[in-house]
Design a protein that fits this description.
The structure holds 2 protein chains of 2 kinds. By secondary structure, chain A is an alpha+beta fold. Chain A contains 24 helices and 19 strands. The radius of gyration of chain A is 22 Å and the shape is globular. Chain A starts with 8 loop residues before the first strand and ends in a 10-residue tail after the last helix. Chain B folds into 2 domains: 201 residues, Alpha-Beta Complex (Spore Coat Polysaccharide Biosynthesis Protein SpsA, Chain A), CATH 3.90.550.10; 70 residues, Roll (Ubiquitin-like (UB roll)), CATH 3.10.20. The longest helix of chain B has 12 residues. Classes of the chains: A alpha+beta, B alpha/beta. The interface between A and B is large, with 48 and 30 residues.
């Protein structure tokens, strides 16, 4: 019998031609307890099911939708799922989370994960419920945005089905395409291209069973307590202004990447600030499924309509590209949603292209920093993979820099092929380490070491041993939160996180867990990701940052210089390996 | 600050007898902390090298900021040159120069410290202010290589800083030179940095001064309730600045001082010209 909150099995779906076969993959108690769910269990599934060296876009490459023991419980923010695969952008493990009813319906098909392999002969959808699996062709959905496809699928198959769908960029193999449901994207690493390569527009799930928890009254009590705490000061930022509240704050402390990381402050920041937009354009607030925080802030667009805005899409499509007109940034964000592409990778890749064009490395004289129309034109080129620029940029900045040459890789804003999020490494040096070593590439969700930089615990401008320990601590916390799965915006409500998380998991699963076991779980998951990447060809040389960040100091408004040298980063990386118990080449020793 | 010669240390002499004050000056209350805390924290926020307090043997010291170290004079009551020697010795491996001051300088300003550091020419061993009519050996910058010569002088019974100056190269910084620094001219026009409090009346007068004016700005959710935009407030410490805008410094709030240093120390001393940004402690995005 499976532990509480689990079914004890994954479903492995093989699509071939116009049909699908499905087989359960048993997940025993030891595997579930060792990897929990979400990102952790997804990593185990990829180790188990992914052939070594497989092309991420090959039919046999597995794409896993992974749930967790908390999905379906009344615990706030628990309606989340992970999508895990080998990234077509990095060639390494990638995992992305999204929050929606898809998580609940998917789990209540009776599976802890659904893994899709193969390739349909025509554009199709896969439908999974408690009664089985089938493939239905849907060529009429070709080219539709994911949201429109969801609407059409709901009309065709009925409202009980929930779909995770791709936009036209996923169909066309843009290497940073997303998978989305209900407007929420599993955004990073190109998972949409993986689904598109299987000729699948969407995966549909329908609930048909229930998942029992070990101690329902205790889970309910814990949920009430967590919900009450979620209304406190730790989440005020998200409730009141959303993640976009970071923009002006980051600008004030010189950590807002601007014009492809040539500056860390942006003159146009006040125009894009949450404080300003909230007053002038704020129209609504929204929550993910099963969430009591409500971090989504929706703004009106000039000429009609509205747009959900987050810090990362505003950073990437605004300051990163030098664009300060909020309507341009709104339009660019909406275009990314329609195409189904990751805003961070899109903005980073276009910012790199703008710099190339200004340096004369790309013959695209219209592509200039600060030009909102050029930004939209470049996004359309990517989404359609138009010959020339669109085809080039659809591969991401690392690949594009390889084609353009002339040292442009030095300022391609990526680590391991994944474009950097909106945290300037030179002024956040614990984060610099986190970005360099993370298995997913430059990533702020699996490594939130900026927490230490911006807490005063470490000198954010002088990386060293304390930064190593801070980076590991935050990476471990993320590994558990992303596997349980809980939203990281809750993190501030926990004062003794591993102990409190063990106390949440215990009544759900029936396991006698404690903080030490969860700490070991975190280390196991981080190491498993590392092992997968080593198998895929990663080496210690990949654990670095773009040359620009290691060779060009930033001068802060205070007059202080922010320099991160290659020696400093190398020293921190070596300290990280040692503290993780890995060898000098970053290989786990066990 | 990082000079072209590498990190600069701070040395605070706290081992004096405070005989005129009648009580230990290091422990005198200063806006919620002590004079010694204020002086050491001021140097720590200004310099990028270590900060060391030189105490008398066995002296009880009040609480110090995180990271500030303590060393002791070898012998009690042998004067400032012994303290200078002990302080320079303590920091010599980590810094080539040190700003040395006494504990009782409640208006010491970072601009003054930076100006004196900048006054240490490559050929000089000491940058010595001559301010407000007096030579200021305890508001001066010394090369840490002087630790040995200073200790030798003390061992020979030559206990005055002037005896060290006679044996090394000194750059003198007069009022005009100090005030030619735009930041000193703007934020410390009367060179109050070198004001000492030696007697109870000095202390009472200093404590009675209005705190310096700083500019505070709140961001994100902290800017609600009418706290949006920069505003000038009089505040001697970070906690006072938070209080002035109705914020409580708890685990959900951090502050950025002058756009770079992130801190949660409520007792962090503030000075004229400072800007303080209060931010949400959660920077997730």
């Amino acid at each position: 019998m499976a532990p509480g909150g689990y079914f004890g099995r994954a479903l492995v779906v093989d699509v071939a031609g116009d049909a699908a076969t499905a087989a359960p993959l048993p997940l025993d108690d030891a595997v579930l307890r060792a990897y929990l769910g979400g990102v952790g269990l997804g990593t185990w599934l990829l180790h188990t099911l992914s052939p070594a060296g497989v092309d991420p876009l090959a039919p046999e490459a597995p794409l896993a939708f992974v749930f967790s023991p908390l999905v379906g419980t009344p615990l706030t923010t628990s309606a989340k799922f992970a999508v895990v695969a080998t990234s077509p952008l990095t060639g390494l493990l990638t995992d992305a989370l999204a929050s929606s009813q898809f998580a609940i319906a998917g789990k209540l098909t009776g599976h802890d994960a659904i893994v899709v392999r193969g390739r349909a002969s025509v554009l199709s959808v896969v439908l999974v419920d408690a009664s089985g699996v089938r493939v239905e062709p849907c060529p009429e959905l070709a080219g539709l945005p994911a949201a429109d496809a969801e609407t059409a699928l709901s009309a065709r198959f009925g409202r009980g089905w929930r779909s995770a769908a791709i936009g036209p960029a996923g169909e066309r193999g843009v290497r940073f395409a997303t998978i989305s449901h209900d407007g929420r994207h599993a955004g990073r690493g190109g998972l949409g291209a993986v689904l598109g390569a299987k000729n699948l527009k969407a995966v549909l799930v329908r609930a048909g069973t229930k998942a029992a928890v070990a101690d329902a009254p205790a889970v309910l009590a814990a949920a009430r307590d967590l919900r009450a705490r979620s209304f406190g000061p730790a989440t005020a930022k998200y409730r009141e202004l959303g993640t976009l509240a970071n923009l002006l704050a980051f600008n004030a402390v010189s950590t807002l990447p601007t014009r492809n990381f040539t500056a860390a402050t942006f003159d146009g920041a006040p125009r894009l600030a949450a404080e300003e937009l909230h007053e002038l354009r704020g129209v609504a607030r929204n929550s993910c499924a099963s969430c009591s925080i409500g971090c989504e802030h929706i703004y009106s667009r000039r000429g009609g309509g509205s747009q959900r805005m987050e810090y990362e899409n505003v950073f990437a499509l605004g300051p990163m590209c030098g664009v300060s007109d909020p309507d341009d940034v709104f339009a660019a964000s909406a275009r990314c949603d329609e195409l189904g592409i990751d805003t961070i990778s899109a903005g980073g890749t276009i910012a790199w292209a703008m710099e190339c064009a200004e340096r004369g490395l790309l013959d695209e004289p219209w592509l200039r920093f600060g030009d909102g129309a050029a930004l939209l034109r470049a996004l359309d080129a990517i989404g359609t993979r138009s010959p020339g620029l669109g085809e080039l940029l659809a591969q991401g900045s690392r690949h594009a820099a390889g084609v353009v040459g002339h040292g442009s890789i030095d300022f391609a804003p990526q680590v391991k092929g994944l474009e950097l999020p909106g945290y300037e490494p030179r002024t956040l040096q614990a984060m610099a380490l986190g970005l360099a070593v993370n298995s997913r590439g430059a990533d702020h969700n699996r490594s939130g070491a900026y927490e230490a930089d911006l807490s005063g615990e470490v000198d954010r401008l002088d990386g060293g041993d304390p930064h190593v320990h801070a980076a590991i601590a935050t990476e471990d916390r993320a590994a558990v939160m992303d596997s349980m799965i809980l939203c990281k915006f809750l993190r501030g409500v926990f004062t003794d996180p591993f102990t409190e998380w063990a106390a949440l998991l215990a009544p759900v699963t029936g396991w006698d867990l404690d903080a030490d076991e969860l700490r070991a779980t975190a280390r196991r998951i981080v190491t498993a990701k590392r092992a997968f990447n080593l198998r895929a060809g990663a080496t210690a040389a990949d654990d670095t940052l773009p040359a620009r960040m290691l060779e060009t100091p930033l001068v802060l408004a205070s007059g202080r210089s922010a320099a991160l040298t290659a020696d400093t980063l190398r020293s921190m990386v070596a300290g990280y390996y040692a503290a993780r118990g890995w060898d000098a080449e970053g290989r786990p020793c066990t | 600050m990082v000079s072209s010669e590498g990190p600069a240390a701070g040395v605070v002499l706290a081992g004096g007898r405070s005989s005129r004050m009648g009580t230990a000056k290091a422990a005198l209350e200063w806006h919620g902390s002590t004079l010694l805390y204020r002086t050491t924290a001021l140097l720590a926020r200004t310099l990028d090298g270590p900060v060391v307090v030189v105490a008398a043997p066995g002296q009880d010291l009040p609480a110090l900021p995180a990271g500030v170290a303590v060393t002791e004079d070898p012998v009690e009551g042998r004067g400032p040159l012994q303290g200078i020697a002990a302080g320079l010795t303590a920091v010599a491996e980590r810094a080539s120069q040190a700003f040395v001051c006494s504990t009782d300088m409640p208006f010491l300003h970072p601009a003054f410290v930076r100006c004196v550091l900048g006054g240490l020419t490559p050929a000089a061993d000491v940058a010595l202010p001559f301010a407000r009519g007096f030579r200021q050996p305890l508001a001066a910058v010394y090369r840490t290589s002087l630790a040995g010569p200073a200790a030798e002088l003390v061992a020979d019974g030559m206990l005055k800083p002037g005896m060290l100056f006679a044996r090394c190269t000194v750059t003198s910084l007069d009022d005009a030179r100090l005030l030619s620094d735009p930041d000193v001219a703007r934020f410390d026009p009367d060179l109050d940095s070198v004001v000492n409090v030696n007697e109870p009346a000095d202390y009472a007068a200093a404590r009675g001064r209005k705190p310096a004016e700083v500019v505070v700005e709140c961001f994100g959710a902290l800017a609600s309730d009418g706290r949006r935009g920069p505003r000038p407030v009089a505040a001697a410490t970070l906690a006072a600045a938070a209080d002035a805008v109705g914020l409580t410094l708890d685990r959900h709030v951090v502050a950025a001082l002058n756009g770079d240093q992130i801190t949660r120390d409520p007792l962090l001393p503030l000075v004229a010209g400072d800007t303080v940004a209060f931010l949400s402690a959660d920077a997730g995005g």
